[in-house]
Design a protein that fits this description.
The chain has 697 residues and is of the alpha+beta class. It folds into five domains: 2-69, Phenylalanyl-tRNA Synthetase, Chain B, domain 1 (2-Layer Sandwich), CATH 3.30.56.10; 90-286, 3-Layer(bba) Sandwich (Phenylalanyl-tRNA Synthetase, Chain B, domain 3), CATH 3.50.40.10; 296-363, Phenylalanyl-tRNA Synthetase, Chain B, domain 1 (2-Layer Sandwich), CATH 3.30.56; 380-592, BirA Bifunctional Protein, domain 2 (2-Layer Sandwich); 608-695, Ferrodoxin-fold anticodon-binding domain (Alpha-Beta Plaits), CATH 3.30.70. The strands form eight sheets. A seven-stranded mixed sheet has the order 18-22-23-27-26-25-24, sandwiched between helices. Strands 4-7-10-11-12 form a five-stranded mixed sheet. Strands 6-13-5-14 form a four-stranded antiparallel sheet. A hairpin with a 3-residue loop joins strand 11 and strand 12 (209-210).
């Protein structure tokens, strides 16, 4: 929208410079994208957002300035004394749903010719070429008041009649029509296109363009001026179908002011009389089924609470009145009626925005919101604990070279299919579907974080990143059978990707054990003691390089190398890539983490260690041996270490050797060799009985 500063100052007198005015308009939400000097005037190029059709005019922009400056608005002169004689002319609205109001005036005895220089110049500044004085006036009023008008040659309107409707409304049956518009092209119209008809034929496409047969020409002396309100959806659909985009359709599509059309009609008739002479006749105004304006109820307290201000109610009312709102004071609230031109104002949030714009966004103090960030907590101690837990989690992985990522909280069935997870699996049975997903791949709220990290891996590898570590802390969601709100928990997930490369130093440590070691170090830092690892049951992990994490006997997560079958599905162009994944439930960790530390004196008496290797069935997990050792009831066991697992020479088929070390210490005496040997033999016997194993010789 191009707006002349001189034109604006006719309506809102002021002494602000063009730069200050441009800044003020921008802060009001009307962004000034450019300033141009034309013939001693300043022309602003204003970006009007689609929800503000009222500002697609000089009066609309001036109205905003008037409210911001507290300066009265000078409305252009438009009163006209029409000839009161009875008109031999009829207007019928056959489709009130698509045309809620239609008004018109007849002007006779006009002299068609060039427009005066001032009118030509203002149209030129607005980007519109001059045609003749009558057509120029309709374009001028369009820019000035924002309401499209159309002038018909009265002598070409047959039957002295205007009908507004579709082909079905006029002819009794819906049919496609061919119609020649003002640009000389013949277009095929849809059967539901709203048209302006005379007694015999269509003469204009409603809200878009008039027809060539009723065009105002140099020989025209009498005209009929149309000013109407057309349904935005109907105009948009017809404009798109016909490929026509005009200044009129641009405004009708966004919604015009149903009350302004009367003033626009009078303003056009006034200017035509001044510029082209002629006699103005009475007005015909058909307005069936007027809709009562909707009221918005909101309190001044609510407005101040949202904006963080302390504005008096009288000041709020003044701001709204300056913008054209009608305000009635109720009991503890304001009953606000938006003006007809503010089609974008529909609720309390819109009223609050109006106050903020008028008061000035730059004047609202910046205050940090009083809101909890991160995990929701019930008291300060729990909040501090949760923050400390998250900090420890992040720092543990950041120190190990991992980078934090943030992904969308969505997933789809294809994620479960990729990982080989049965869709009827209990963890995914109660998925939370999204009613309006943007993509098929984002159909559900995610139940685990790993799929998103796998997508991160594929993306990074496709961009030639060959070694990286990622982690994410976010919520996962699961539905509820009793139709309550979905359950959401915080999860932690990590991913390591590495390809085989030549290196000066040789490191044979398996990446699975690297990530598992980081997790164990984290658990130690969180003071979680009662944890263990067992063979993983996750279908997407490598069966020999994976483990499930248990705390107090309950599974809370997993860690492991991605199965070679899944890696092949990813189609990663690399030789033998190493991908290790981990995920666990943070909420489950919380009761066990950061327990109160109980200090005890350093031991006064020496300890004694014994090593033993047992041959057991290869199906027995090493973690089971450790669990059985911890299960043995003795206050003398200080520490247990598993240090070797061996299969091969001198070990029978189907068996394996597991070696462990136990350190014994008494708090009140020095243990003798007999004490240690007796206890150690009892423990070894206990393990052999439970595992059906034997001591390796």
């Amino acid at each position: 929208m191009r707006a002349s500063l001189a034109w604006l100052r006719e309506m809102v007198p002021g002494s602000e410079s063009d730069v200050d005015t441009a800044h003020r308009l921008t802060m009001l939400g009307l962004e000034v994208e450019g300033i141009e000097k034309v013939e001693g005037d300043t022309v602003f190029e204003i970006n009007v957002t689609p929800n503000r059709p009222d500002c697609l005019s000089i009066i609309g922009i001036a109205r905003e300035l008037s409210a911001a400056l507290g300066t009265p608005l000078n409305f252009p002169e438009h009163e006209v004394n029409g000839n009161t004689g009875e008109l031999d002319f009829n207007i019928d609205i056959l489709n009130p749903a698509l045309c809620r109001r239609y008004a018109g005036r007849i002007v006779k005895g006009l002299k068609i010719g060039p427009s005066p220089d001032w009118l030509k110049l203002r149209l030129e500044k607005s980007g519109i070429r001059s045609i003749n004085n009558v057509v120029d006036v309709t374009n001028y009023v369009l820019i000035e008041l924002g309401h499209p008008l159309h002038a018909f040659d009265l002598g070409t309107i047959k039957g002295h009649r205007i009908q507004v409707g579709t082909s079905g409304d006029v002819k009794g049956k819906a049919e496609r029509l061919r119609f020649r518009t003002l640009d000389g092209l013949e277009r095929e119209l849809l059967s539901d296109a709203l048209l302006i008809w005379d007694a015999e034929r269509p003469i204009a496409i409603a809200g878009i363009m008039g027809g060539g047969e009723t065009e105002v020409s140099d020989s025209t002396t009498d005209i009929f001026i149309e000013s109407a309100w057309f349904d935005p959806v109907s105009v948009r659909r017809t404009a798109k179908a016909t490929g026509l985009k005009t200044e009129a359709s641009f405004r009708f599509e966004r919604g015009t002011d149903i009350k302004m059309l009367k003033k626009a009609l009078d303003r056009a008739a006034f200017l035509m009389h001044e510029i082209a002479g002629g006699k103005v006749y009475g007005k015909i105004d058909i307005y069936p089924g007027q809709l009562p304006p909707a009221k918005i109820i909101i309190s001044a307290e609510k407005i101040n609470s949202v904006l963080g201000l302390d504005l008096p109610e009288t000041q709020i009312i003044r701001y709204l009145n300056d913008l054209g709102f009608v305000v009635e004071e109720g009991k503890g609230c304001l009953n606000i009626t938006p003006p007809a031109y503010r089609v974008d104002v529909q609720g309390g949030a819109d009223i609050i925005e109006e106050i903020a714009r008028t008061y000035g966004y730059e004047r609202i103090p910046a205050v940090l919101p009083m809101a909890s960030v991160g995990i929701e907590t019930q008291d300060n101690s729990q909040k501090a604990f949760s923050e400390s837990l998250l900090k420890e989690l992040k720092e543990s992985f950041l120190k190990s070279g991992f980078t934090e990522v943030i992904n969308y909280s969505f997933m789809g069935d294809q994620d479960l299919d990729l990982l080989g997870i049965d869709r009827s699996d209990l963890r995914h049975l109660l998925k939370v579907p999204i009613k309006n997903p943007l993509r098929l791949e984002d159909t559900y709220m995610r139940t685990m974080l790993v799929p998103a990290l796998i997508r991160n891996i594929v993306y990074n590898v496709s961009h030639d990143n060959r070694a990286f570590k990622l982690f994410e802390i976010s919520r996962v969601f699961s539905g509820s059978k009793d139709e309550k709100l979905p359950e959401h928990k915080y999860h932690f997930a990590a991913a390591l990707y590495k390809e085989k490369t030549r290196s000066l130093y040789k490191d044979d440590t398996n990446d699975f054990f690297v990530v598992k070691g980081i997790i164990e170090a984290l658990l130690e830092a969180l003071k979680i003691r009662d944890y263990s690892f067992g063979r993983s049951v996750e279908p997407f992990l490598h069966p020999g390089q994976s483990a499930d994490l248990f705390i107090s006997g309950s599974k809370t997560g997993f860690v492991g190398a991605l199965s070679p079958v899944i890696v092949e599905r990813l189609d990663i162009k690399a030789h033998g890539p190493s991908i290790v994944l981990a995920e666990f439930d943070i909420d489950f960790l919380r009761p066990y983490a950061m327990q109160v530390i109980k200090y005890r004196p350093l031991p006064k008496y020496p300890g004694s260690e014994r090593d033993t290797a047992l041959v057991v069935d290869e199906s027995i997990a090493s973690s089971k041996i450790v669990a059985l050792l911890k299960e043995f009831d003795s206050d003398l066991i200080e520490d247990i270490t598993l240090f070797d697992v061996y299969k091969g020479k001198n070990i029978p088929d189907g068996k394996k050797s597991i070696a462990f070390s136990i350190r014994y210490r008494a708090a009140d005496r020095t243990l003798t060799d007999d004490d240690v040997e007796t206890l150690h033999n009892r423990i070894v016997g206990f393990i052999c009985e439970k595992t059906n194993g034997q001591v390796r010789s």
